Q: What sequence folds into this?
């Protein structure tokens, strides 16, 4: 069973793409082969509505998939790294698009 983190960001997709490249490059031990990070895309009306339920005006969305099941315990660390890169109040991370990761 795949584990996906749905990440809604208040930043535009091009800005998120730059931040994600930096995040993965500076955290290779955490991300290398353990987590797959998708390219960000523009948030549509449904994405914006989901993010708004958590108080965020989303402009973009990206996914992080657990690629190595033994790394699932590192999900909180991944969420902390993403929030550190994008800004704690600028991203909402939902496990399987349902459960908020704080």
A:
């Amino acid at each position: 069973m795949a584990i996906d983190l749905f990440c809604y960001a208040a930043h535009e997709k091009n800005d998120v793409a730059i931040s994600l490249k930096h995040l993965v490059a500076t955290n290779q031990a955490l991300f290398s082969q353990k987590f797959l990070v998708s390219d960000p895309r523009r948030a549509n009306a449904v994405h914006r509505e989901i993010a708004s339920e958590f108080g965020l005006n989303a402009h973009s969305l990206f996914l992080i998939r657990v690629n190595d099941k033994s790394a699932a315990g590192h999900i909180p660390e991944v969420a902390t790294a993403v929030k550190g890169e994008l800004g704690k109040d600028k991203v909402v991370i939902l496990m399987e698009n349902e459960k908020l990761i704080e």
